[in-house]
Amino acid sequence: MKISIIGAGVMGMWSAYKLLDAGHQVNLYEAYYPGHTRSSSGGESRLIRGIYGKDDLYMDWVQYSLEQWQKIESKLGNQLFYPVGCLWMFGNETAYGDYAFDYLKKIDWPIDSISLNETRNRFPQFSLKGIHKTYYEPNSGYLMARLGCQLIKKLFVQAGGTYIQEQIPVDENRLEDFNYKIIDHDSDFVVLACGPWLKSLLKNLLGNKLMISRQEIYYFSLSAPNPSFNTSSMPAWIDLSERNYYGIPFTDQRGFKMADDSRLSEIDLEEDDRLPTPKKIEAIKDYMRFRFPTFMHPKISEARVCQYTNTTDGNFIIDFHPQRKDILIIGGGSGHAFKLGPSIGSHVTQLVSGQANVNPMFSLDRFNDSDKFQSQFKR
To answer: Of the candidates 304, 335, 219, 212, which has an alpha carbon nearest to the alpha carbon of residue 264?
Structure first.
């Protein structure tokens, strides 16, 4: 089958790679470049971790995806995954971690429930004020994001896939016409993997189902070297207490990464400048002083503004267009799709090949009229 994929973010890239591996002829179109600065798959790094509340499927997908990311590493000799561990810190509500802990044990994903005293002894960098429970995933860590997209593209082309740097217009008002071709050449199937641009390209279908949130990411520097905040001494971490923050300790590539994972404001992809806001800068510094009191005089060395494409329930969209069964829509990453790229690509391949049905968890039919947009950290 001849398949065209529009969008070379992590969803489109892994779908292209997996479809090609399944024997299809694949053209991959990208307006800019893989992991470009305005994409949701850009930037330096992404966490990969196992805890996913009651979403067993995601935990199965994480396990498979990590194996696939590591295969990419071995094929090309570039390190993409850094197993620095991941510390989870929970406030009063711990159910999200409690259920996942039991399931991860069943699938042999390494995870430990550690007491607060043990956490203080092992990781004295953290203040545990407001924390009631901690879990530790020793084999979790972070992935290189932009580099990962670029390396998958390299393998895709080496394996015989066609990568085309071109912006493809999509006329939503003509999609119900089966004679309408999104691209000029004769494809049997089209996958729309346009990330946050799906909302504007398919405004009638997805306009009220997606919210593009503005996410600010910061890198802090130290006035003097402190090895206790390096990856050799400190894990990546997620704080689900009164605030919702995550971070990665000092790496060779950047400084001490930290971000607020809340989805509080929208971003205009075409019009807004990507500059950090003074209010959020002060909030992140306050949190830095609160959670890491020995990190003296935190200074921001770099900042980046990206976006999440949020759905109302925090789950992805992987479904056929209601009027076109030769068009598959994949998107709604909701801030957690990157790590799961290989599993998304495998699922897309099964759908296109007729080997699987649309999962209700990712279907367009699941949406109601709710205008409340959630993260994957459903309580």
So the answer is: 212
Under the banding of pLDDT at 50, 70 and 90, the label for residue 162 is: very high
- According to DSSP, the β-strands at 25-30 and 162-165 are parallel
Closest CA to 344 of 141, 57, 136: 57
- Number of C-beta neighbours around residue 129 at 10 A: 10
Q: Is the pLDDT of residue 376 over 90?
A: no
How confident is the prediction for the chain on average, in pLDDT?
A: 94
Using the predicted structure, report yes or no on whether residue 119 has a pLDDT greater than 70: yes
- pLDDT tens for 199-216 read 999 999 999 999 999 999
> Residue 379 — pLDDT band, cuts 50, 70, 90?
very low
Q: How far apart are CA 308 and CA 337, in angstroms?
A: 10
Domains in the chain with CATH codes: 2-366 (3.30.9.10)
Residue 20: alpha-carbon gap to chain centroid: 23
Tokens 């590539």: give the residue.
253
- Tokens standing for residue 115: 């007491």
Residue linked to tokens 């641009």: 197
